[in-house]
Amino acid sequence: MSVNQAGCQSKQGGFTLVELAIVLVIIGLILGMAFKGKDLIDGAKVKSLAAQYNKVQAAFNIYFERYGAYPGDGCGVVALGAFTPCVGAKNGVLDTANEVNSALIQLQNAGMLSASDLSTPFGVPWSISSSTLATFPPAGTNYLTFTAGGLNPPLATVADARYVCALDRLIDDGANGNLAAAARTTVRSGLAYTAATDCWGLQGKASVGLRLLP
After folding, report:
1. Is 179 domain-assigned?
2. I want to staple 210 with a disulfide (CB 3.0 to 4.6 A). Which of 53, 94, 119, 203 is the partner?
3. Is 141 inside a domain boundary?
């Protein structure tokens, strides 16, 4: 028996099993809410990507109806950034660097897209792949894609593979990715996933392309 300075018996206390159980339950609830919150944020980012793509695609169609050509199609160096139709050869795709680089700027200057529409939810700008560089198969097509620093051709493997897979599940076939080169799929990724792939279990980076033209 130990006695303190006041001559009273000291008591040694601790957590009871009930108290420990309550603490563990609270910790479990906090962790559960944290993971659920992350899932909601991830899902929101994927939906935001899909919404931006739909908006850009709609802007391309509206521009065509208004000016008789797609933005950027036929643009030369002088026409870069102008929102009026370009005067060069128009073939329905963007196959030169000037055409690719001017397309999104034209849509912004025409008031069809805002500055925020030109940036992805991940802080990197949207870009358009050239039809002649075959960044995404099949050749002769243009894709809206991620880029780092606004370079043309767009840099590959800058997107989180999990989001690319989830995006395909949301707006496309959810299976092919980049496997069926001859198919007219919306999403091109370079990922070899199938319908059974766990998108959120993927690791690493991937390229992503959302088909615009033709």
Report:
1. yes
2. 53
3. yes
